[in-house]
Amino acid sequence: MTETNGKRFMRLIACGVIASTTLLLGGCVTNTVQQVREASTGITDSDSIVVLGRRNRPSQSEAEMDFLDCVSRNMASGTDAVQVVTEQQFMDALFPWFEPRTAPVNTTDLPDLLSEPILAERIREIGLKYLVWVEGQTQRTAQAGSFSCSIAPGGGGCFGFLTWDKDSSYEASVWNTHTAKTAGKVSSDAAGTSYMPAIVVPIPLIARVQSSACSSLASQLKQFVQDKS
Amino acid sequence: MTVSIWRAAAPCVLLCSLTGLLAGCGGTNRLEVIEGQFPVPVMVKAPVRLGIYLDEDLTNFVHKETIESKGKWEVSLGSAQRELFNNLGTGIFEDHRFVEGTSAPQMDGVLKPTIREVQFSLPSQTRSKYYEVWVRYDFELFDKAGTKVGQWVLPAYGKASEKDFGNKMSGMQAAAIAACRDAMAFFSLNFQREKVVYDWIKAGKPLQPLAPPASPAPPPAATGAPTAASANAPGSNSPGPVVASASAAPTGRQADAQTDKQADTPADTQTDKGGQQ
Predict the structure, then answer these.
(1) Is residue A97 helix, strand or coil?
(2) Which residues of A touch B83 (CB under 8 A)?
(3) Dihedral angle, C-alpha B16, B20, B21, B23, nearest 10 °
(4) Alpha-carbon gap, residue B208 to B225, rounded angstroms
(5) Chain A residues with CB inside 8 Å of B132's CB?
(6) For residue range B227-269, what is the model confidence (pLDDT) as tens digits?
(7) Nearest-CA residue of chain A relative to B257?
(8) Which is more confidently placed, A24 or B2?
(9) Against a cut of 0.90, is the pTM above it?
(10) Is the ipTM reported for this complex over the cut 0.90?
């Protein structure tokens, strides 16, 4: 009898895993991308771009490192890929000019900075044309439901229903190092609701909000710097 | 019957004791600022050849602190100092080498850094999302004969977001590394603007007049060789460094940043912290 229960339990788990895998991508995300162009852009094969997070002060809108990595990776891959220098490589190559408290805050600071011959030379060496400053974050805006799991000698399981909303809001400011002016701004907002029903096995339906905001922002930035938008 | 009840209860008692013991002890959170995080600054080099004296207090520096309900912390900053100052010297001095004291006849002078104070906070203490570290360095500049030219303070700050680091050890380590990089960055940008340094270099990196030996009786009035104070007085014709007459306070962006830094010293968060060893 115990063996039969065990088999049943295993079967249920297997079904749950299959269902979870099938529905894992099921969460819905709404995404909005906007851009404001202030100057014409263009990029060649020898030009590079860097995506940086604003870290000058503890701030609630500081972009996550994995989001910046995601944008950099997405810009460096796929169709119309551009050459991207990673944030750490860039900060090390131009140390100490782009550390949290020494980095320029406005484009008005750029001419002074680029007038340092040794710095200008280093920027030329890495072929940097665009600096992209990203601010924003992903946060959980609401949640509801309850969920509990229990385990007993004969088996175990979970029961309940959870739901939560996430909201991603990021803005990228694009600076042209050749002209020392702002080229424009691109913003990406995404919102989505995730669900987790559980009848014996929890079935997560995750809305990939941050991932969606990342791919949209990266895609739009690629078009923006290549002046295809 | 009594025995069987005790037998049944024994595992529970043992489990509870063990849990309590673990919760009570907590262990020590040891972390080290590792090497390989400190790049060579991209700067116009200062026209100075300096010996860098890192004493054992600095190279073995460990900050120990006990935070109420968060356990003991040991943050080791000392092991990274040699790499940090080597790269700093490579980037901003015409020449540098490590020396074993405050005199270096073959160089222009000697720089001696000291970590005067370290403080840190966890996100739960400040109710923010950041691990934060403050480090206060004191720098002393000596001429090549080992006489002190002057000193200055450099407060540095580093933070790391809770969102970016999965556990408190990696978060705190990232904040400590950021604080050390901040110290390097500020030292690089402000070294030549520090009044002590600026005046000394401008005066030709001279040997300092020796301080008069301490004497219980007041010195005789008005005659004899000029003292350090009189040599430095405005209008003096003495060849010594004219510390008081030169003006080279940090200006512009660096000065603003310095002001920011002063504002970020940990005074406001210290009240949230637990006891300090």
Answers:
(1) coil
(2) none
(3) 140
(4) 14
(5) 58
(6) 333 333 333 333 333 333 333 333 333 334 333 433 344 433 3
(7) A101
(8) A24
(9) no
(10) no
| β-pair partners for B66 | B72
For A113, which residue in chain B has the nearest alpha carbon? Answer: B253
Instruction: Give the residue on A whose Cα is nearest the Cα of B185.
Output: A96
| Distance of alpha carbon A130 from alpha carbon A59, whole angstroms | 24
- Whether residues B261 and A101 touch (CB distance < 8 A) is answered with yes
Q: Angle at CA B271, nearest 5°, toward B268 and B275?
A: 135
Confidence grade of residue A144 (pLDDT, cut at 50, 70, 90)? very high
Residue A106: predicted pLDDT: 84
Euclidean distance between CA atoms B277 and B271, whole angstroms: 15
Higher pLDDT, B70 or B154: B154
Contact status, residue B65 vs residue B120, Cβ threshold 8 Å: yes
**How deeply is B249 buried, as exposed, middle or buried, from its count of CB atoms within 10 A (0-12, 13-18, 19+)?**
exposed
* Cβ contacts of A118 on chain B, cutoff 8 Å: 42-44
What is the layout of strands, in order, in the sheet containing A155-176?
A: A28-37, A181-202, A155-176, A128-152, A48-53, A83-85
